[in-house]
Amino acid sequence: MTHATDRLRTEITARRDDLVALTQDLIRFPTLNPPGAQYREICDYLARRLGKRGFDCRMIRAQGAPGDGDRHPRWNLLARREGAVPGDCVHFNSHTDVVEVGQGWSTDPFGGEVRDGRVYGRGACDMKGGLATSIIAAEVFVDLFPEFAGAIEISATADEESGGYGGVAYLAEQGVFAPERVQHVIIPEPLNKDRICLGHRGAWWAEIETRGELAHGAMPFLGDCAVRHMGAVIEAFETRLYPAMAARRTDMPVVPEGARSSTMNINSIHGGEAEQAEDYTGLPAYCVPDSCRMVIDRRYLAEESHASVSGELRALLEDLKATRAKFDYRLEELNHVAPSMTDRAAPVVTVVAAAIREVLGRAPEYVASPGTYDQKHIDRIGRLKNCIAYGPGILELAHKPDEWVGIDDMTQSAQVMALTLAALCLGNSLGTFGGSAPSPPGV
Fold first, then answer.
1. Selection from 152, 126, 156 nearest residue 139 by Cα
2. Using one digit for the tens of pLDDT, what is the confidence trace for 88-124?
3. pLDDT for 30-65, tens place per residue?
4. Which residues contact 214 (CB under 8 A, 6 or more apart)?
5. How far apart are CA 33 and CA 161, in angstroms?
6. How far apart are CA 122 and CA 183, in angstroms?
């Protein structure tokens, strides 16, 4: 181990309390999405901190993006620290939004409680712990090596939990992730400290509406129940579509194991009369429902295609239309994300892999995510392929009650990130930590 590597790891360990406190501070911003609360407040907090370390901080509002408005504007932070000489730009991207709290918590979801070596709270794992980890790694590195080459960027972005269109997608459209501007991107999503996530499955969201005929609920034979038609759709899913999807397997290294097959979640179903206003306490009217709507979330494999996924569902609905009396439907695509995968030989992959070996003493596991994350926009819009997800946290804890991130995991992940910066910004050969890096002050 070189003096430089040793000094980086030692200094990160010394700042463990600062890492915990930063994670707690971030958790205490209730940046719930929807609706997109306190985006500006958390960006202002980070800008004040990073500005003290010489980062040039820009606030970027995603004007006109989905969800953006005067009440809940979509604010993003882009912080950049230039090195002393030209070189590659290494960019850490984290989202600031968190999902709803839900039930079943034993601690304050926005309290940032520390217990048994863990920090608890909504977003602790996904992914404020990762954001804090990348900041500590970058701060330690620039403190010890102010004459580094290239540039370091940290972005804190909006709306990843609802597609990222008010965050990374918007920044990518503005050229932030253009390959001539940024060369390496690490997204500290919670994929476990010994894993490198190369990409994710594809996703297709759609709404299905079955149609019927309105009639009095006491005489349903005079109408046509759209909910019963939707029941036939669900039966077809259970007997035909779900078995077909389960039989498909991918060569993508998707985790957990169940995600190696195609999957589909029924997000919601609503049929009949809309819910009454909160101040109404009476019974609903007696009507045969003439409409029933379902939203589906279909996750597909690299071996499938957008056309085959949507075509398979439409063929199922067309078959019901041909065989079931009075069956009629509407199918509308809500969103589509293609699968994304970075090559295992990409520079950022090889460097992070070497850093994991150095810190953890073992080779990393290469995985793909079951769900999409903001790599999709960096890849498709930004045209930057040299992008991975790497960060602390256990994937299965995301969006769960009593969400937490391990303090040891954050500390070790910060060491991996700092060693990655050393390899990319100090002139070392890619993937090594024993080259001719300059010594930090005092070494």
1. 152
2. 999 999 999 999 999 999 999 999 999 999 999 999 9
3. 999 999 999 999 999 999 999 999 999 999 999 999
4. 223, 287, 288, 289, 290
5. 7
6. 32
Does pTM surpass 0.85? Answer: yes
The kind and range of the H/E element at 243 are helix 242-246
A 10 A CB-CB count for 244 gives: 11
Within 103-260, strands assigned E span: 114-115, 118-120, 149-157, 184-187, 195-200, 202-211, 215-216
Token code pair at residue 362: 């073992």
Q: How far is CA 404 from CA 108, 121, 194, 398, 410, in A?
A: 12, 6, 17, 9, 11
Interatomic CA distance for residues 8 and 443, integer angstroms: 11
Distance separating alpha carbons of residues 372 and 100, to the nearest angstrom? 18
Residue-range domains of the chain with CATH: 3-200+339-425 (3.40.630.10), 202-275+283-337 (3.30.70.360)
Tell whether omega for the bond before 256 is within 30 degrees of 0, i.e. cis: yes
